[in-house]
């Protein structure tokens, strides 16, 4: 290759690389834009977080709800409650209902934003149906939870300090990736509890503090079903839990996960699970795991004489 040909090849390679980069940016621009909006609150986009660690403020805001469906989508979609007052930093659970009015299953996706738009950076969701492509069977109706809080920093930002009313808006559209649709039946109050989903939720939300077999930040949870509260061996419980005098039944676990500080004042548990469907599946998995040792002992073959120490 001559020097001139080599130079032309370098220039051509550079042009091809630039074109490829531009095409990649175009292809991923919707995803990059969503990431940018979620990180900055731009355009009223809310922020997704794993948990609420904010300190609850005395300052309140009123949150209202607006729901819409795109033309051609045969769904009914509405909030289950009117405007709610929440303290900044206070975790709140609200519900929306959706019903497929057609004779066939449909997968849809909800877009969302808040107004005033500048409050989007401080409106934080822990759980929302809008995180997924959602599938409704023909004529199926479900209640869908949203768990959110408004960051107390809203009050200290000069651009949002005067905000006292926020509107959370959703619009459902037909999904462009229906193969990714999640069954909304998981949110059906009449559905059978799903221990497998409970295990996934435990891994995602609880395993940093809890294990089935050992004490960590929190006590071991293996065999918790039916166990007396505050009695896991080797764990330093709060006096409030040691004196609670209750056994961990499904009902007690549900109230505990809903709000441990309301259920037993004075405990140290910092985490709540406001979503009733998540609590249902977590409890189903804990019950299943608590029964495993008993089932294993029933299935274990009788020990031999040597194993019992009666022979050599």
Describe what is shown at a glance:
With 312 residues, the chain is of the alpha/beta class.
CATH top level assignment of the largest domain: Mainly Beta
Count of DSSP H/I helices? 6
Q: Whole-number radius of gyration?
A: 26 Å
What is the CATH fold-level name of the largest domain?
Ctag/Cox11 (Pfam 04442)
CATH architecture descriptor text of the largest domain? Sandwich
Strand order of the largest sheet: 4-2-10-6-8-11
Description:
The chain is globular. It has 6 helices and 11 strands. The protein is 29% helix and 22% strand. The protein has a 6-stranded mixed sheet, with no helix packed on it. The chain has a 5-stranded mixed sheet with strand order 1-7-9-5-3. The N and C termini lie far apart (85 Å). The protein is an alpha/beta fold and 312 residues long. Mean pLDDT is 82; it is low at 25-42 and 294-312. It has helices at residues 3-40, 195-206, 239-242, 250-258, 260-263, 276-299, and strands spanning 47-48, 60-69, 75-79, 84-87, 92-100, 106-115, 123-127, 134-136, 141-150, 165-174, 182-183.
List the helices and strands and how they pair.
Elements: H1 3-40, E1 47-48, E2 60-69, E3 75-79, E4 84-87, E5 92-100, E6 106-115, E7 123-127, E8 134-136, E9 141-150, E10 165-174, E11 182-183, H2 195-206, H3 239-242, H4 250-258, H5 260-263, H6 276-299
Parallel strand pairs: 1-7, 2-10, 8-11
Antiparallel strand pairs: 2-4, 3-5, 5-9, 6-8, 6-10, 7-9
